[in-house]
Amino acid sequence: MTHYNYPAPTESPFFDFCQYIPLLISAVQEELDRDEVWQDSEVVQARGFMQELYRYLMQLECSGIMDYSKSIAFTQADSGTLTLDSVPAANGVLLGVVVIVDSANLAGFGTLQIGISGDTDLYQTVNDNNLTILGAYETFNYQVLGASPAAIIATISANGQSFAGRIILRYARL
Known about the structure:
Layout: H1 13-16, H2 21-32, H3 35-38, H4 43-59, E1 66-75, E2 80-85, E3 93-104, E4 111-116, E5 119-124, E6 135-144, E7 152-157, E8 163-173
Antiparallel strand pairs: 1-8, 2-7, 3-6, 3-8, 4-5, 4-7
């Protein structure tokens, strides 16, 4: 079992806990990503708790943390690679990805995945959304992007289908 050490706060938690929110989110997600955790029958409940923890943490009044979103429209005409965020914030946290399908056509079988060059479905796979059914499809990622994050891209394949929608990237950063 790997143990992780995180720096202790330098002041009372009332004064500097905000700087630890992205770290807390990513540490819990890292634990949920471990293979041993997936063997537990309570994984669905644990994921639900993680989402509730995220909602709680993002409601805290913290002057040092900023929660923001970036929305990008897409259609079948964007088949290929669509750059969603060419320069993500350094050391930011990608909290989640939402794909909203505003217009769909049952003919064809278009696909959409979101990731980075070399790992095009890192943040959302083709199984996480459905371009033939109107709706919102959300994945919770909690990925710390690092000091020099790669551009976030969508890989779209129309495959004879017409569709339109929006992709929303939800971030937190210090």
